């Protein structure tokens, strides 16, 4: 087999539309590992929630989380690589995001039990309120976030309707310019979409390449599978890029193959009929 590293998105790829790992997917990932592939999750999720998925799949390799802003050891939670948001964009980012909803600060503080810091506000969007309620055990509510927290800020984000955030994204990117990278992604586990502000060099592909180079693995030896805009670069750059059947058109356009959707166990199909037969 010419491939050594398998990079998997989580939501929309590993997980079905109900957020579950189907038995066929579990078996296919196990088979990939048995064939000698190193399997890594590359996700926009927080480490805490991505870790649960990785453990359910029986993975052992580090996790690429927050779209590449962090690489963390699965067992220990140690940060192996980070690319925190620059303090220079902190206040401008807060001012911009506050126009739509109360900003959420994602921080690198797994061992402190805190993933998110946000301020209590009547302006928090209802979609975001539902999310914060669900992650409440690892969310710190404060009265003021005007001063940066002591921990590294991985990203700032808000949640709202997709149409509203897509229209707002260009304004945020134009204001912050080359100092930040701005994503709008589907919020697959909750309602609406997510707008994220990250360090400009952050991407899943950048973090994946760095890990691969440390292992002596070339880009041509990587398989990447995903569905959303944050997967596009790694699917285009990998030796074998596979788009899920439920992927956005831009991702399908750069992929070498398009598999079935996550409702049809597309990841299992891709591994069994494309990757493991190569």
Output the CATH topology of the largest domain: Rossmann fold
Strand content: 15-25%
Number of strands: 14
Helix tally equals 10
Task: List the secondary-structure elements in sequence, H or E.
Answer: EHHEHEEEHEEHEEHEEHEHEHEH
Q: What's the CATH class of the largest domain, please?
A: Alpha Beta
Shape: globular
| CATH architecture descriptor of the largest domain | 3-Layer(aba) Sandwich
GO molecular function: magnesium ion binding; phosphatase activity
Protein name: Haloacid dehalogenase
Pfam families: Hydrolase_3
List the helices and strands and how they pair.
Blueprint: E1 5-8, H1 10-14, H2 23-34, E2 38-41, H3 47-56, E3 63-65, E4 70-72, E5 79-82, H4 90-97, E6 104-109, E7 114-119, H5 126-134, E8 139-142, E9 153-160, H6 162-176, E10 181-186, E11 193-198, H7 204-214, E12 222-226, H8 232-237, E13 240-243, H9 249-254, E14 257-258, H10 266-275
Parallel strand pairs: 1-2, 1-12, 7-8, 12-13, 13-14
Antiparallel strand pairs: 3-4, 4-5, 6-7, 6-9, 9-11, 10-11
Helix pairs in contact: 2-10
Task: Give a short summary of the structure.
This is Haloacid dehalogenase. The protein is an alpha/beta fold and 278 residues long. It has ten helices and 14 strands.
Give structural attributes:
278 residues; alpha/beta; Rossmann fold; Hypothetical Protein, Haloacid Dehalogenase-like Hydrolase, Chain: A, domain 2; 2 domains; 6-stranded mixed beta sheet; 5-stranded parallel beta sheet; 10 helices
């Amino acid at each position: 087999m010419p491939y050594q590293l398998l990079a998997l998105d989580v939501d929309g790829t590993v997980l079905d539309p109900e957020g579950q790992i189907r038995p066929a997917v579990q078996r296919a990932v196990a088979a990939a590992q048995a064939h000698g592939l190193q399997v890594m999750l590359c996700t926009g999720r927080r480490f805490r929630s991505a870790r649960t998925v990785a453990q359910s799949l029986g993975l052992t390799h580090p996790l690429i989380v927050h779209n590449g802003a962090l690489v963390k050891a699965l067992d220990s939670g140690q940060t192996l690589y980070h690319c925190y948001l620059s303090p220079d964009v902190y206040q401008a980012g807060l001012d911009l995001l506050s126009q739509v909803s109360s900003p959420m600060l994602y921080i690198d503080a797994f061992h402190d039990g805190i993933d998110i810091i946000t301020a209590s506000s009547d302006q928090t969007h209802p979609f975001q309120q539902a999310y914060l309620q669900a992650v409440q055990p690892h969310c710190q509510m404060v009265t003021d976030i005007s001063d940066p927290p002591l921990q590294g800020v991985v990203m700032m984000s808000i949640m709202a309707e997709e149409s509203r955030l897509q229209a707002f994204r260009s304004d945020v990117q134009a204001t912050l310019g080359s100092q930040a990278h701005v994503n709008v992604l589907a919020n697959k586990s909750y309602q609406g979409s997510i707008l994220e502000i990250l360090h400009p060099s952050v991407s899943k592909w950048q973090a994946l390449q760095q890990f691969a180079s440390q292992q002596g693995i070339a880009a041509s030896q990587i398989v990447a599978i995903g569905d959303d805009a944050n997967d596009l670069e790694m699917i285009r750059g990998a030796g074998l890029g596979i788009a899920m059947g439920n992927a956005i058109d831009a991702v399908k356009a750069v992929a070498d193959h398009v598999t079935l959707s996550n409702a049809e166990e597309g990841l299992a199909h891709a591994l069994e009929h494309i990757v493991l037969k190569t």
